Amino acid sequence: MGTVPREKFVDPGFEEYAYEDAPLSIGDGQTISQPFIVALMIEKADLDADDKVLEVGTGSGYASALISHIAMYVYSIERHERLALQARERFEKLGYGNIDVRVGDGSKGWAEAAPFDAIIVSAGAPEVPGALKEQLGPGGRLIIPVGCSDAQRLKRITRTAAATFEEEDLGGVVFVPLIGEDAWTAAHPMYTATAPRKNK
Ligand code: SAH
After folding, report:
1. How far is it, in rounded angstroms, from Cα 55 to Cα 50?
2. Per-residue pLDDT tens for 50-69?
């Protein structure tokens, strides 16, 4: 974490807060995640040097930059075009050559690049999107905040066999909502799950 300059990932004027352990606004109602939570997610993803990783919710690009130092390649998907383009520019400027950024709905994953050794979702989902589980390779780990739009539980889902998944609870977190076809609808401020929620 010491090698990624977080001040280069925040908006102009916020540089002096870049090393506080707090989320910061990056515009479009979105935030760069709190460093502690990003570290926790990456640690729990149990990354190896030859891993192919998907990050859903590129935002500023900070988490993808961190992941790119540990894993082999990062596919990063962001629904806000402005944020995606800005992150892509940052990666170019800072010399990150192993991150591919795409504008799109990450609740559907990134099928063309699957399977992934790990998937890290940086926005809160009402349910675990099926496509993300399906795009995990054997032994793959999915780290995802799941719950209501203002508070979630961080989950780790591990693909233990072709059709078997193990789920662990990693604690309480607060993320901005994952908005997409297999997540929340964009109707703000009362987010509504796009699919009926089961057992909740
Ligand atoms: N990892 C980011 C944190 C960004 S906050 C960082 O380090 O800065 C979460 C991001 O998820 C927001 O930018 C939001 O626009 C994005 N997002 C929400 N729903 C999404 C979806 N369905 N697909 C892709 N990105 C999504």
Report:
1. 16
2. 999 999 999 999 999 999 99
Q: Within a domain: residue 166?
A: yes
Residue 164 lies in a domain: yes
Q: Which of 37, 90, 122 to mutate to test the pocket of ligand 1 (most atoms within 8 A of CB)?
A: 122
**pLDDT digits over 125-160, tens only?**
999 999 999 999 999 999 999 999 889 999 999 999
Classify residue 48: in a domain, yes or no. Answer: yes
Owning domain of residue 133: 21-173
Classify each residue of 88-118 as buried b or exposed e, where b means 16 or more C-beta atoms within 10 Å of its C-beta.
Answer: bebbeeeebeebebeeebbbbbbeeebbbbb
Query: Is there an atom of ligand 1 within 6 Å of 31 CB?
Result: yes
Is the predicted pLDDT of residue 199 greater than 50, yes or no? no
Domain count, the chain: 1
Residue 71's domain is classified under what CATH number? 3.40.50.150
pTM: 0.95
Question: What is the residue whose two structure tokens read 């009926």?
Answer: 196
- The verdict on residue 95 lying in a domain is yes
Atom of ligand 1 nearest to the CA of 77: 24
